[in-house]
Write a structure and sequence with these properties.
Structural class: alpha/beta
Radius of gyration: 26 Å
CATH architecture of the largest domain: 3-Layer(aba) Sandwich
Number of strands: 29
Helix content: 25-40%
CATH superfamily of the largest domain: P-loop containing nucleotide triphosphate hydrolases
Strand order of the largest sheet: 1-11-16-15-12-14-13
Largest sheet: 7 strands, mixed
Shape: globular
Distance between the termini: 40 Å
Number of helices: 23
């Protein structure tokens, strides 16, 4: 294809010139140009207070959109409401205007509402927008969170504004330790959770339990309001999060503005080389850009390549960096001190980072929801560009063959696992510290399930029909496990030269990054991991200069124990189950790769393997084993199917590259598990959509023209044995036999597993 847009043509020409014969080029271009959402009534005709009408007129708003008015009516009726509409279409006004109307008309103690954002930075950013609607003395706003100075907190507590802006983390800890936060939560008539799509997975499980604690702290329930630009199942998801019935208001899914979406093939080149070259072009053109990656270490790697190989002035923005470092990066991007920023999902939310010209996705995001969210960072004030770089992995190849399918895919449902036991423990202990004692029969079912474990470990005591915390032990537990952003313990990364903690990583992923001999990248610098102590939750690393390599672990995963929660037969007769499992992750070696080419430089076995056991949720599958394959052939076939299913889950379930892991056995048993401790809900969605995942997996493998396996079909960069014991052809042979009675699997999943597990 010949690109139409001048900038896109220039990008295409330079990539072909820089990498002749490699296939690196623009392969698809799509222009998104939208108008206004459907109009609703005049702002003068819906009973808004005069000062608010004047504030809207100053902003150039004379009438509401239809979806805004629908939300306005439902919220004023006291109905739990979830709003889903495109970026920049006015979701904030949809929930804020009815809340302000109730504040002006009502009486009673402030605050009348709490508006919660996923991060402190976003809450402060939105406060600037809210202040435009201040109506003295009736309507006022203030941020109350961990960064609010103590003196200001006291002032807010003694004379609260009508609307508190905060975050769920502050509500979580405040309900335990702060009588002021408890007072805010008890008095607020409205609890607003903006950016609702963020609250999926483990964070969503925490919000589910936090909402239960909130409701149990009050005499009556508040009106819950959720808002999101991109969510596939708003009403169902909000209902599961908050345990309440919701009405759904949908606006247009697109955003306002003109944006050119571009798919770029990296051909036979490394996606990182092509991404870096693309950013170099944007920098030379004077365009301000943001690059999204889905791994902290890949963010560091790409930043280093851009600085050292291309001389591009970029900064890195990711979780694990101190808040002041992230704020400094945001300020530099807004002011133009840096050309661009390489970010993990920390910047996919609506923090004001100025007018950006382009967003570059170094790989397709974990879900189409996240693509739309990230693409929404550009094109708000002038024409924007969104470049997505496709490499040679299975899903990139899938979309390279059918680019239209990328842009016409449906938004996947958001999911949580409300029965995550590790999360339940956190919130039961938090609630008991909050109220001191509770009747066992009044506790939610999820909390009752973990009560025995907490009692056995000495965190709670049961006296008659009541349970109470053991205060000191409960508080120590929450210090280690109390973060809403995690379900597993956190490992501190210590600079052994200075003795300072430089970063934090959550288990089990910490073990896959911080094993002895691993290269850990931090703010563009390389650190060699010397040791990790899982008992003290500390890893020690020393800075190394001149390093041009990165590492991958060699590891095994085995199922230590399991408990089947649900079971079924698929349409092809395969037996599948959803289960609670206990896994053992064991790192046994290190693969050292060249930072720029990705070539393997060496493979080293660890003198002492490092192991970690943890509970999670998983989809278990029992495939029939054709006798003619033999033990080795079966291991190759099922390992390949495992990889292909995990890849297919990115299309079918909207999972990220590292949301799921897998292990297979030559006996036809495959386990695809949530990578998060306790479970995130993605494995459950895969269990429900297994037939669809099998179809995509078969399509990925059958359309590849390699001999018997390659990065475009069954190889995975996260494979525990460096992509050994794999066969695309044997995997397809097994799938072709499904549904044939003569080799139907008789045993239940894992019931008769045999052979060495392959991760």
């Amino acid at each position: 294809m010949e690109p139409r847009d001048p900038l896109v043509r220039e990008v295409d020409a330079e990539l072909k010139s820089m990498y002749p014969g490699s296939g690196a080029s623009v392969i698809y271009e799509r222009v998104e140009e939208t108008g206004e959402p459907e109009p609703g009534p005049s702002i003068r005709d819906i009973g808004l207070p005069d000062p608010i009408v004047k504030a809207l007129l100053r902003k150039g708003i004379e009438r509401l959109y239809r979806f805004q008015y629908e939300a306005y009516r439902h919220i004023l009726n006291g109905e739990n409401t979830v709003i889903s509409a495109g970026t920049g279409t006015g979701k904030t006004e949809a929930f804020l205007l009815p809340v302000i109307k109730r504040v002006v008309e009502g009486d009673g103690w402030n605050p009348r509402a709490m508006v919660l954002y996923p991060t402190k930075a976003l809450a402060r950013d939105q406060l600037n927008r809210f202040i435009e609607y201040t109506v003295y003395p009736a309507v006022s706003f203030a941020v109350y969170d961990g960064d609010t100075p103590v003196r200001l907190r006291r002032r807010i507590a003694s004379n609260p504004p009508s609307i508190i802006v905060s975050n769920p983390d502050m509500l979580h800890t405040g309900l335990i330790y702060s009588p002021h936060v408890r007072g805010f939560a008890e008095r607020a008539d409205f609890m607003v959770f903006d950016e609702l799509h963020v609250y999926e997975g483990v964070l969503g499980s925490h919000i589910h339990h936090l909402a239960e604690r909130l409701k149990k702290s009050r005499a009556s329930k508040p009106v819950f309001i959720g808002a999101s630009a991109t969510i596939g199942n708003p009403r169902e998801f909000a209902g599961e999060l908050f345990g309440e019935e919701f009405v759904e208001v949908r606006g247009e899914t697109w955003r306002r503005g003109v944006v050119t979406h571009v798919l770029v093939s990296s051909g036979y080149m490394s996606r990182w080389s092509v991404t870096a070259q693309l950013c170099s072009i944007l920098s030379r053109k004077g365009l301000r850009f943001i690059v999204f990656v889905d791994s902290q270490q890949l963010a560091e790697l790409l930043t280093r390549i851009l600085r050292t190989r291309h001389g591009v002035n970029v900064a890195v923005h990711r979780a694990g960096l101190p808040a002041d470092v992230r704020r400094d990066v945001e300020a530099k991007l807004r002011s133009g001190v840096v050309d661009g920023v390489v970010a993990t999902p920390t910047l996919e939310l609506g923090i004001d980072i100025g007018a950006l010209d382009a967003a570059v996705m170094a790989s397709p995001p974990p879900s189409y929801t996240k693509y739309l969210q990230r693409a929404g960072r550009v094109g708000r004030r002038r024409r924007g560009y969104v470049f997505t770089v496709l490499g040679d992995d299975p899903i990139d190849t899938y979309y390279a063959r059918m680019p239209e399918r990328f842009f016409t895919q449906s938004i996947q449902p958001s999911v949580i696992e409300p029965f995550n036991e590790e999360v339940s423990k956190t919130h039961l202990l938090a609630y008991l510290l909050q109220v001191w004692r509770a009747r066992v029969m009044d506790l939610p079912e999820e909390w009752k399930r973990v009560l025995g474990d907490l009692a056995a470990e000495g965190f709670v005591k049961t006296v008659g029909e009541y349970v109470r915390p053991v205060p000191r032990r409960a508080r120590l537990f929450l210090m280690e496990h109390g973060s809403l952003r995690a379900s597993g313990p956190v490992v501190e990364v210590v600079d052994s030269g200075r003795g300072e903690v430089i970063a934090y990583r959550e288990l089990p992923v910490a073990l896959l990054e911080l094993y002895p001999g691993a290269i850990y990248l931090y703010t563009g610098e390389s650190y060699m991991v010397e040791s990790i102590d899982l008992s003290s939750k500390r890893a020690y690393a020393r800075r190394v200069s001149g390093n041009a390599s990165y590492t991958r672990p060699l590891y095994t995963v085995d199922v230590v124990d399991y408990d089947i929660l649900a079971e079924r037969r698929t349409g092809s007769g395969v037996r599948a189950a959803y289960a609670r499992v206990v896994l053992e992750l064991r790192v046994e070696g290190v693969v050292v790769k060249d930072m720029y080419s990705g070539e393997t430089l060496s493979t080293v076995e660890l003198e002492e393997p490092v192991a970690y056991r943890y509970p999670t949720r998983a989809t278990l599958i029992k495939y029939p084993v054709p006798d003619e394959l033999g033990a080795r052939g079966s291991a190759e076939a099922f390992h390949a199917i495992e990889h292909a299913l995990i890849s297919a889950a990115r299309v079918v379930c909207g999972s990220g590259l590292t949301d799921l892991g897998g292990v297979s056995y030559p006996s036809g048993d495959i386990v695809v598990y949530d990578a998060a401790v306790g479970g995130s809900g993605v494995a459950k969605l895969l269990y429900e959509r297994l037939e669809d995942a099998e179809k995509v997996a078969e399509e990925i493998m059958s359309r590849c023209d390699c001999h018997d396996g390659c990065p475009r079909c069954i190889f995975s960069p996260y494979c525990g044995n460096n992509n050994q014991v794999l066969s695309r052809r044997k995997a397809l042979y097994v799938l072709s036999k499904l549904g044939k009675a003569r080799i139907a699997a008789a045993a239940a999943p894992l019931e008769a597993r045999a052979g060495k597990p392959v991760a």
